Each structure stands twice: as C-alpha cells, then as structure tokens.
Amino acid sequence: MTSTARTPLVGVVMGSRSDWETMEHAASVLTELGVPHEVQVVSAHRTPDLLFRYAEESVGRGIQIIIAGAGGAAHLPGMLAAKTRLPVFGVPVQSKALNGMDSLLSIAQMPAGIPVGTLAIGRAGAVNAGLLAAAVLALHDPVLAAAVDSYRARQTQSVLDHSDPRS
Ligand code: RP5
C-alpha cells in the first residue's frame, strides 16, 4: 500500500495492477488538489479476505471515501459497499473483451440498499471519481473547496484560451 504523508482520507483501490493505467488518473487529481489518499490493489476474486479486511478497517483508519476501480466481472466496488457504510465510487475499467460495458453494468446494477456511485468507463470516470471525492470532502474543508474552485476555473480558462479547434 502507498499513502501520502498525512492520514489518508480517500482509499483508491483497484482489482489488479493492470487497472493502474486508469486509476492513476483518480490518484493524480487527488494529489493535485492536496487530498491525502492511499493506493492499493485489492482483488474481489483473488484476495477476497483482504477485500473484507480493507472494508471493515477503513472507517477506523479514518478513510472517508473509497474509490474502487475494476474491470470485467467488476465486483470490487459492490462488495466493498456491502461491507462498509463509507461512500464508494466505482470506476469501470475498460476491458479488452467487451470495452468496459461488462465493467459498467457490473458496477452500476447494484440492488437497492447497497449503493455504489458509478462513474464513466475509463479515464474520464477515474478523473471524475477523484473530483467527486474532493467535492464531497470540500463540503467541510474551505481550503479544499478553494482548490476545487480553482481547478474548475483553470479548466474553464483553458477551454476559452483554446477555442479554435484548428490551432
Ligand atoms: C479485474 O480483472 C481487474 O479489475 C482487472 O480489470 C481485470 C483483469 O485483471 P488482470 O487479469 O489484468 O490482473 O479483476
């Protein structure tokens, strides 16, 4: 497990090392906004006991939000949500066989009572999971709120500064 120096508030987990190419975008947004977070591979199928332990211990360790990415039979976000009351944001990783539709449906189609906030497939979902986590934490953190506002303002300015798609 890797973590930033301060106690992590967000746990970024993924089903496989192969998911990092996608999930690094969530971690990178959190880093940019100064949100303490940790990163770890936790596989629902290959390390089920670790998955249960991670979910059970996360509240006590001070984690406030879990971002979980998985592909294919993407059971990680849902099973984490089944074992903790923490908000879980699920990122469907783009699978090779079915382009991520399998991941998306596996994560989105939760039964009533166990919610997973499902993001878009791939990089956009990972970026937005990081932004969503930051926005939730910013509700009670004015410094983070300013960082999120500033991120959005920079993004807007960048679009305005490059409005001619030919150049
Ligand atoms: C899922 O299976 C992982 O989340 C990953 O997206 C997918 C493939 O895993 P690897 O075979 O690349 O380890 O559990």
TrEMBL record:
GO molecular function: 5-(carboxyamino)imidazole ribonucleotide mutase activity; lyase activity
One Pfam family named in its UniProt record: AIRC
Keyword Flavoprotein: no
Catalytic activity: 5-carboxyamino-1-(5-phospho-D-ribosyl)imidazole + H(+) = 5-amino-1-(5-phospho-D-ribosyl)imidazole-4-carboxylate
GO biological process, one term: 'de novo' IMP biosynthetic process
InterPro entries: PurE_ClassI, PurE_dom, PurE_prokaryotes
UniProt-listed Enzyme Commission number(s): 5.4.99.18
Domain PurE: 8-159
Enzyme class: isomerase
Positions of substrate binding: S16, D19, R46
Statement: the UniProt record of this protein carries the keyword Lipoprotein: no
Role this protein plays: Catalyzes the conversion of N5-carboxyaminoimidazole ribonucleotide (N5-CAIR) to 4-carboxy-5-aminoimidazole ribonucleotide (CAIR).
NCBIfam families xrefs: purE (TIGR01162)
UniProt protein name: N5-carboxyaminoimidazole ribonucleotide mutase
Organism of origin: Dyella tabacisoli
Lineage: Bacteria, Pseudomonadati, Pseudomonadota, Gammaproteobacteria, Lysobacterales
